[in-house]
Amino acid sequence: MIRFHRKDTVRIFTCVIGISGVLTFNAMAQYGGPTGGGTSGGGGTGGGPTSIYNFHGNYHLGFDTPEAWGLKYFAGTTLLSGLQPPDPPEGHRVGSLNVGFELGWLPSLDAGQRQIGFGGRVPEDLNKAPILARPVVRVGLPWNFTFVAAAPAPVSVFGVKSRLFAFGLERPLLARGDWTLSWRGYGQVGSVKGAFTCPKSVLPFEPGSSGNPTECVGESEDVASLRYAGSEFQFAYRIPSMPKVVPHVAVGGNFIDGVFQVHAPVADGLDQTRLWTRGGTFSTTGGVTYLLTKRAAFTVDAFYTPLWVKRSAMAQRTNDGLVNLRALLSYTFR
Fold this sequence. Notes:
Layout: H1 6-29, E1 58-60, H2 66-77, E2 97-105, E3 115-116, H3 117-120, E4 122-123, E5 131-140, E6 146-150, E7 156-157, E8 160-176, E9 179-194, E10 222-237, E11 245-261, E12 264-266, E13 269-271, E14 274-291, E15 296-305, E16 308-309, E17 318-319, E18 322-332
């Protein structure tokens, strides 16, 4: 690992914290306002929920609305957070290649949490994939930087097709004996596609009935864009008496840019409503890495992000955060 003089280290650390602080503050300040942006009228004529919106409306969601909660919840499950394997014994090398496989648990949502459609009045089929699986690649760059990339396979699994690409840069800032303070900046582009508003399970029921409240007449092909940018600091400590065990914690700030594009055949036509929201979230992880060999490591993290939501006009604003477990098996080739 490259060592710096104390003054150089302080300058680098101060600069990175300043930049990251500005980005995080800007992200946290950009909470969406009241729902708006769409034109009312049009839509269905049957008196069901589909009559509320114009089928081609473009609606801005407040960041604490039920629909926005769903977008930031699933963006949170894909955050490129934590799970940072330690450098091999020879330290950081330009051109080094670390390949890993990440597995994340996606908790099942209860009936109340799935009630996010039409301002929290209609359930949606959100319990599709129980896990997130994706390969993760790290490449050593000059000046002690490492490029990180992660993406699930672009195939349909559990009724969902993902086209997501997460990427980032990470770098150690301070190294003192057995502990290291690192920084990571990251982002994600892409979307997931599935039948969220009109799943196959509601089609046997009469459109507009309690079993089919959105008046579906066919499976939908909805698209959720889960874009984000964030910055994170991680503290790791190599236990002297157990050199193969490396506990670590991380904290980060994120800017979520979520879009939900409905594409649902309903009784009154084709619903192509577009919903979008933007705002900031905070996240934290804690876990441990076990060095299987000099080049192979297994990392397990617990992840948490508080997510505020107001599930109805009369309800109080509450925190319904995401807690899940993530694991990474990695190997450094050179």
